Amino acid sequence: MGTLLESIHSPADLKRLNAAQMTALAGEIRAFLIQTLSKTGGHLGPNLGVVELTLALHKVFDTPQDKILFDVSHQAYIHKIITGRRERFSTIRQPGGLNGFMLRTESDHDSYGAGHAGTALSAALGMAVARDMAGGNENVIAIAGDAAFTNGISFEALNNIAEQTRRLIVVLNDNEWSIDRNVGAIAGYFHRIVTNEHYQHLHDSAHRILERLGGKKVLNVARKAEEAAKGFLWPSMLFEEFGLQYFGPIDGHNIPLLVETFKFLKTIDHPVLLHVLTQKGRGFQPALDGQKKFHGLGPYDPETGQTKPAGQLTYSEVFANTLVDLAKQDPRIVAVTAAMPNGTGLDHFRPRHPDRYFDVGIAEEHAVVFAAGMATQGYRPVCAIYSTFLQRAFDPIVHDVALQKLPVVFCMDRAGLSGDDGPTHHGLFDLSYLRGIPEMVLMAPKDEDELADMMKTAVSLDTPSAIRYPRGAVAGVTRKPEPQILPVGKAEVLVDGSDVAILGLGPMITLASELGSRLGRAGFSAAVINPRFVKPLDREMLDLYAHRVAAFVTIEDHVRMGGFGSAVVEALQDLGVAVPVVRIGWPDRFIEHGKVDALRAKHGLTVEEAETQVLPLLAHRKRRTLVAS
Ligand SMILES: Cc1ncc(C[n+]2csc(CCOP(=O)(O)OP(=O)(O)O)c2C)c(N)n1
């Protein structure tokens, strides 16, 4: 670690540095980030892009009194380093360590937590209005990437800002990338601004003016600053129409320029938007060459950027390959992503069916209503959206898809615990929020072969449907040559039994089988069942076993409340049978980040826990005598 960086324990230490030292510090921080994240993994590219921007912000503003909000907040690592977390930084995303996003409970300097895109402007406006009401004087600054402006909430906030407050600073951090290339008209608009020759000229002269004035230390005098600013002021119609004075675009890697600009913006008594141009991955050639990969990744070689060769096939890949094949057979199938072609696997679909691939930007609500519109015209839209991000689209799923009986398919990747990313990214609520929606068919495959079957089933239905599958490697089963349509609402009994029925949802079937074997070894007859459908539930199967077994066990990678186990309890109640149900799932609290296995052990999603709970319920069942083999 460099010596300047070692001296930084709080923003006050940064404030003592001069411009040259800050520039040197930026270099040290880049080296530190590249080294540290090579071991932990994380959002390297976005953070390398905002080193100077974050240093300038902390030089000029005083957190925690002033509020700095990062949209998504995956790019807040430098903020963490500056605000007293440098020594713990090597624990980032590690169990018990720093979270990869801003977290209000982690530091007073994290004024607002995030993980989902598009919230910074609205939250900042809320804080600014609260300040105004209290007669406070603090500054509120929202930093949002260019892709955050593809999100509706950002525009809902823009529509509201000028009407609500006179003091708010919005920083548009424009690097032209989302995770993939940014898409849509707004991205095109930003691109035209930064490539416009006239702008380029203004930008250069602004640079010179500010540097000159900065040297004379006059920019903190508001009037003169305003005069100086005229040189680089260029009203961008879009933001000016929203009532935000637009400044920029300026070089987001020039510390003196950024510092002087922020000093000036601090003095302005109306909402402003500063457009800064940054380079994602700056200072690390592999990240510049591989923007998508280095947006967020696991450990890598800090010299070459090389990562371990891809291991086992993932559920996302099986989803994408299957969709490519299904789309060959069925011209009605179209694929929709909300800025996640890479994560969902749809970047594999894109070149194979370019006319039937739609990336709508970070806009999950729009994605779903758009899909509904296509479905009214006879298409079979498949929306590939992570479980956690689909939460955004709850109302469109109810109002636009289900109520209108439209056959939209939701393929919910990352359903279940996401691990290192933590609570903003765990997909633990989808069953709860989808289960109560009439018309919806809800499925969870036990392995990759069944995922393909469920996709084929889903596109054959005339109702909406959703399939949940986890992050990461598939089970590794032998695949059928062709997927099959499954009978809707029918479970699969893998092992019959008469003392206890164990229902393992999706890949949790492996825990169910293990529990079945243990109980078998303890002398009980355990049925192991793959439910396949959370809705409609296989009531016939439940009725059959309810009259046979002493207890059910349900195991799901989902919150217990309102999840699959709850559905089983409700169904048994409706059937008028009183058989106890041991429900294994996540408790009613937000689960921290960490390794999946360790978190399962901590929160009781284990075979041992299930066994402990179920054994007393089987006490009155006579154990079979085991014949030693
Ligand atoms: C609602 C929602 N959908 C999708 C994502 C996944 N996601 C995380 S960062 C990101 C791109 C952000 O791009 P930008 O705001 O331009 O910031 P940059 O990474 O380029 O600095 C996306 C799509 C998310 N965090 N939230």
Radius of gyration: 27 Å
* Helix fraction by DSSP (H/I, runs of at least 4): 40-55%
Bin the strand percentage.
Answer: 5-15%
Give the end-to-end Cα distance, rounded to a whole number of Å: 62 Å
Q: Which kinds of small molecule does this entry bind, naming each only once?
A: thiamine diphosphate
- Broad shape: globular
Taking the sheet with the most strands, its summary is: 7 strands, mixed
**Contiguous helical run count:** 28
State the total count of DSSP E strands: 17
Low-confidence stretches: 215-233
Secondary structure category: alpha/beta
- Mean of residue pLDDT? 93
**Spatial strand sequence of the major β-sheet:** 7-6-8-9-11-10-15
Plain-language structure description:
The chain is α/β, with parallel strands linked by helices. It is built from 28 helices and 17 strands. A seven-stranded mixed sheet has the order 7-6-8-9-11-10-15, with helices on both faces. Strands 1-2-3-5-4 form a five-stranded parallel sheet, with helices on both faces. About 3% of the residues have low confidence.
Task: Describe this protein with a few key phrases.
28 helices; globular; 7-stranded mixed sheet; alpha/beta; 14% strand; 629 residues; 17 strands
In short:
By secondary structure, this protein is an alpha/beta fold.
Topology:
Layout: H1 3-6, H2 11-15, H3 19-40, H4 44-49, H5 51-60, E1 67-70, H6 77-85, H7 120-134, E2 140-145, H8 152-164, E3 169-174, H9 185-195, H10 197-215, H11 222-230, H12 237-241, E4 245-251, H13 255-265, E5 272-277, H14 285-289, H15 291-295, H16 315-329, E6 333-337, H17 341-344, H18 346-349, E7 357-359, H19 364-376, E8 380-384, H20 387-390, H21 394-402, E9 409-412, H22 430-435, E10 441-443, H23 448-460, E11 465-468, E12 492-495, E13 500-504, H24 509-521, E14 526-530, E15 533-535, H25 539-546, E16 551-559, H26 564-575, E17 581-586, H27 596-603, H28 607-614
Parallel strand pairs: 1-2, 2-3, 3-5, 4-5, 6-7, 6-8, 8-9, 9-11, 10-11, 13-14, 13-16, 16-17
Antiparallel strand pairs: 10-15, 12-14
Helix pairs in contact: 5-13, 7-8, 10-13, 16-23, 19-21, 24-28, 25-26
Residues 46, 49, 71-72, 74-75, 116-117, 145-148, 173, 175, 177-179, 280, 295, 338-339, 362, 364, 389, 392 line the site of thiamine diphosphate.
